[in-house]
Specification:
Elements: E1 5-7, E2 13-16, H1 19-28, E3 41-44, H2 60-70, H3 75-84, E4 93-96, E5 103-108
Antiparallel strand pairs: 1-2, 2-3, 4-5
The structure holds zinc ion.
């Protein structure tokens, strides 16, 4: 299975970054896979969700594309968060499928201070 999820002892879910997700993040941030090679995945308070529109599994690429589309953060800021980790309390995010635009149900709480 290419899109793995690991249940962590603290109850968080690590969404292990797949190569395909790494590629689409690199495209979204105008960088290359090499820059993102240290990123192993993100830790979220719930399991991956399957998109009701296209069947894609939710991933870090959806968060990145949503952030770029909203224009709230610069691409270099997003890249910094990805490579340095989440440093402070981050609000739960609503998430939209980057494949078809359907909203995943509910919100996705980031789990901070997790070394991955
Ligand atoms: Zn979709």
């Amino acid at each position: 299975m290419s899109q793995e999820t690991i249940l962590l002892p603290n109850g968080g879910f690590q969404w292990v970054l797949s190569n395909k997700e790494r590629e689409s993040i690199a495209n979204a941030l105008d960088t290359d896979g090499q820059t993102l090679s240290s990123i192993k995945g993100n830790v979220i308070g719930r399991a991956r969700e399957t998109c009701s529109g296209c069947g894609k599994l939710s991933g870090l690429d959806d968060f990145v594309k949503n952030a770029v589309d909203l224009g709230v953060h610069s691409k270099s800021f997003i890249l910094g968060v990805l490579t340095d980790g989440v440093k402070r309390e981050t609000p739960s995010h609503a998430l939209q499928c980057s494949g078809c635009g359907t909203h995943f149900e509910g919100v996705f709480p980031w789990v901070v201070d997790m070394a991955i």
